[in-house]
Amino acid sequence: MRILDPHIHMTSRTTDDYEAMYAAGVRAVVEPAFWLGQPRTSAGSFTDYFDSLVGWERFRAAQFGIRHHAAIALNPKEANDPRCREVLTEIPRYLLKDGVVAVGEVGFDSMTPAEDDVFAAQLELARDADLPVLVHTPHRDKLAGTRRTLDVVRESGLPPERVLVDHLNETTVALVHDAGMWAGFSVYPDTKMDERRTVALLREYGTARMIVNSAADWGRSDPLKTARTGHEMLAAGFTDDDVDQVLWRNPVEFYGQSGNLVLDPVPGFVAGEPPAPGVEFEGSSVLRGVRA
Ligand SMILES: [Zn+2]
């Protein structure tokens, strides 16, 4: 099973997770920018974080044989803080960096007017940078939030195939599917979707434009939920090719629209062995030699 986890916050995870993910078939990830749990108080807090997403985390993942990519954005929750909104002027330069494959996560949290403005502004940044967009849907009032999300996307004029709408469930999948956008499912241990419900939706809607992620972060979550969903698909009668489509080819097609995916194996990497000294890393010369 080969897996690209299209939404996972590796900054919050351990090296044990990277090892377990590799063993389960994960060969690439996309890490969208999100909030830290603790509110940020300045734009500088974001730029340090973005730098670590495109630099340090990319290097760390490569040591475990996993290709790391990032999506960059001001997250919906912090769009409400004027101190955070200042980062919007910094985002365009990050969208040009190696390994940045999308704008994200953007969208609504509490559906405030400030979130509306920041969402629309970032869709415009995506258009200017010619990148796809990862859109978060609110956990409260999900149906109304998803409807409003689709309205904002339509107003932006972005082509539907450039947009992945995430955290969907039984009540919201049809809206996104019918709109021609990519449908994302975050499979969590005890909230959002589980493997079984996700597989039921794959049976109902088919495997085209359907994407499964672990959305693992610093909360109770599981970075192996992509693999577990793949095994649940097989147990339910889907083929290996179906699993490959959902866990690999679909996210590759979506993020591949950026032209920035790197998917060849990490040179010099051998599972279970310490990284070779020359393990490839294109991100930052500062990081070379950090690990003796
Ligand atoms: Zn997330």
If you had to describe this structure to a student in words, what would you say it looks like?
This protein has 292 residues and is of the alpha/beta class. It has one domain: Metal-dependent hydrolases (TIM Barrel, Alpha-Beta Barrel). 39% of the residues lie in helices and 14% in strands. The protein is built from eleven helices and eight strands. An eight-stranded parallel sheet has the order 1-2-3-4-5-6-7-8, with helices on both faces. The protein is globular. The model is unreliable at 283-292 (pLDDT under 50). Residues 7, 9, 32, 34, 105, 215 line the site of zinc ion.
Computed over alpha carbons, the radius of gyration is 18 Å
The quaternary organization reads as: single chain
Number of distinct helices? 11
Order the strands across the largest sheet as they lie in space.
1-2-3-4-5-6-7-8
Kindly report the average pLDDT value: 93
| The CATH H-level homologous superfamily | Metal-dependent hydrolases
Number of domains: 1
**Measured distance between first and last alpha carbons:** 33 Å
The fraction of residues assigned to DSSP E strands is 5-15%
Helix content: 25-40%
Q: What class would the helix/strand composition place it in?
A: alpha/beta
CATH class: Alpha Beta
Give the overall shape: globular
CATH-defined topology: TIM Barrel
Features:
11 helices, UCP005295, single chain, TIM Barrel, 292 residues, eight-stranded parallel beta sheet, 14% strand, binds zinc ion, 39% helix, hydrolase activity, 8 strands, alpha/beta, globular
How is this fold's topology laid out?
Blueprint: E1 3-5, H1 15-24, E2 26-32, H2 43-54, H3 56-62, E3 67-72, H4 82-85, H5 91-94, E4 100-107, H6 113-129, E5 133-136, H7 142-156, E6 163-166, H8 173-178, E7 182-186, H9 195-205, E8 210-213, H10 225-235, H11 240-256
Parallel strand pairs: 1-2, 2-3, 3-4, 4-5, 5-6, 6-7, 7-8
Helix pairs in contact: 9-10, 10-11
Zinc ion (ZN) binds at residues 7, 9, 32, 34, 105, 215.
Family: Belongs to the metallo-dependent hydrolases superfamily.
GO molecular function, one term: hydrolase activity
Protein name: TatD family hydrolase
